[in-house]
Amino acid sequence: MRQVLLLLIVLINYQSGYTQQITCSPKDKVAVEEKINAIEELLQPNFGSTIVSVGKTFMKTPYVAKTLEIGDTETLVVNLQGLDCTTFVENVLAFSMLLKQQENSFDAFVKNLEVIRYKDGALDGYASRLHYFSEWISNNAEKGLLKDITGEIGGAEITKDIDFMSTHRDLYPFLADDTNFDKIKVSENFLNSKAICVLAQDKIAENEHLIQSGDIIALATSINGLDVTHTGVATKEKDGRIHLLHASTGSMEVEVSKKPLAEYLKGIKSNTGIMVARPL
Known about the structure:
Layout: H1 2-5, E1 7-12, E2 19-24, H2 26-38, H3 47-56, E3 76-78, H4 85-101, H5 106-117, H6 133-142, E4 146-148, E5 156-158, H7 164-167, H8 178-192, E6 196-200, H9 204-207, E7 216-221, E8 228-236, E9 242-248, E10 253-256, H10 261-266, E11 271-279
Parallel strand pairs: 2-3
Antiparallel strand pairs: 1-2, 4-11, 5-6, 6-11, 7-8, 7-11, 8-9, 9-10
Helix pairs in contact: 3-4, 4-5
């Protein structure tokens, strides 16, 4: 039965000589191909507008947590049937990049997803996934995919101990493996050696005009050990305000926040502000 539900595709990179595994159901492979056809006219001169247009094609997609935690070995999971906040952002960016690249194949989409999701763009085990979103932003900035603009729009550097995964090992099945655990600790130590920039919650409204549609928004948190608890895409709506396009844990589907971003965040007790990254 599992073989019917899951299609394991082996991709061979003939230039580098490595073999990569992908976990993708037949239904999801068809969904990717249909999405590529559905978005083919959505490329706009402003890449941020392209990202919002692509993102809104996911409206009503169910929110589903932990879709990447499959099997005993890290594989590149392709799943459009259910999205969490991070996989929503990753898929929107991967499809939007296809339009810029003038590509329309499943393989090109998969390559984009791998580049976005993993450190330095290559899957190399569980610890190579960009688990902490502040690192997701910084590593994708190093790849030239986006720019962290938080400091430019009024953000300030903060330091915080990032160790939620290692201190909550039981929540992450892959961390039962000591090698994975040790590598995650190394990643956390690296993060703890750097400051992160956050636009404080009480400064968002006055700097909202500097946020553009298509910017990636990460919600900073006061929760011990964590940098970010939620992500989404900024979208300027008919009221002229920036709202959040995201896979919501409230409605349990992809939606645009009913309240503008600044007001929406006030309803989240643990929120301390946002990080803002602009896709290039």
